[in-house]
Amino acid sequence: MDVSFINRSRHVGQSYFSSIFTTLWAFFTVIPIVYRIRPKLILVNGPGTCIPIVIASLLLWILFLINRPKIVFVESICRVQSLSLTGKILQYLPVHILVQWPQLTEHYPKTQYIGRLV
Predict the structure, then answer these.
(1) CA-wise closest residue to 28 among 47, 53, 5
(2) Chain center to CA of 57
(3) Are 19 and 30 in contact (CB under 8 A)?
(4) What is the pLDDT of residues 24-47, one digit of tens each?
(5) Of 3, 47, 57, 41, which Cα lies nearest the Cα of 23?
(6) For every residue of the chain, which 3-state class applies, written as one string?
(7) Which residue among 9, 49, 52, 95 has its CA within the 20 to 30 Å range from the CA of 19?
(8) Radius of gyration of the chain (CA)
(9) CB-CB contact of 111 with 91 (8 Å)
(10) Quick check: 22 and 48 in contact, CB under 8 A?
């Protein structure tokens, strides 16, 4: 098993403006990890830390450096009324978004409800 540590995209209480820079830093540190691992499946949830992983894998795929991985984002069970900021961002990318409340699929057509996952 290979364990890699990446930088957080945003810390609790950090401003959105400064999180742009920490997200970019996380993105550049995750590129070599994704390239080395060459995942077939990327399963992510919750925090913005998954955004650099998803974008890095898609970029490496676009550049023909890795095969296209299947990417699945599982939204938190706490998100009953709306998607998290991460979910809202990822809905514009080729990612499968699984929600844990059926009513979210009415407001976010790119999401899928397959039952409770947690």
Answers:
(1) 53
(2) 10
(3) no
(4) 999 999 999 999 999 999 999 977
(5) 47
(6) CCCCCCCCCCCCCCCHHHHHHHHHHHHHHHHHHHHHHCCCEEEEECCCCHHHHHHHHHHHHHCCCCCCCEEEEECCCCCCCCCCHHHHHHCCCCCEEEECCCCHHHHCCCEEECCCCC
(7) 95
(8) 15
(9) yes
(10) no
